[in-house]
Specification:
single chain; mainly alpha; three-stranded antiparallel sheet; 74% helix
Length: 156
């Protein structure tokens, strides 16, 4: 089991499924490169301890709780301060706005891709229509020639 998790193939995974479950059930480390998690850092490409991340999560939760307590306290003290705090964007609102901007960028990128694809298909359609018209024209000329030749043979 000295092999890193990212190097395992499907057969290795299928054979050692029980070991994998044991290794990833309570991860202590995660890989910064491939985002896998494991109990042992020797199993990961670029391991990083999960402890700092967990402590950051706890700090964020504490800050959120403190902000809620401050907002509740300020709302009970003076109505003017509660109105001012409503006007200022809070940290979760800023995060939400950032998320919304990211979604909007992604949507615009997807629309551009769709437009480019549509233009490419229209160009291809025009080309095919030209080819079809050429073939149709040559076929109709051939049909006229054979029809006129048939009529001339019938006259003689």
């Amino acid at each position: 089991m000295s092999k890193r998790l990212c190097k395992w193939n499907r057969q290795d995974i299928a054979e050692q499924l029980g070991d994998i479950q044991r290794l990833v059930s309570a991860p202590q480390y995660f890989c910064r490169s491939c985002a896998r998690a494991a109990q042992d850092k020797d199993l990961l490409c670029k391991p990083m301890s999960l402890d700092p991340i967990r402590s950051v999560d706890l700090l964020v939760e504490q800050q959120d709780a403190n902000e809620k307590a401050v907002v509740n306290a300020s709302a009970s003290e003076t109505p003017s301060m509660s109105h001012a705090s409503k006007m200022l964007p809070t940290q979760p609102d800023a995060k939400q706005a950032k998320k919304q901007a990211k979604k909007q960028k992604k949507y615009i990128k997807q629309l551009k891709k769709t437009v480019n694809k549509q233009q490419k298909l229209l160009k291809k359609q025009r080309k095919l229509e030209l080819q079809f018209n050429k073939v149709n024209l040559s076929f109709s000329q051939l049909n006229i020639e054979t029809h006129s030749a048939y009529n001339q043979d019938a006259l003689h």
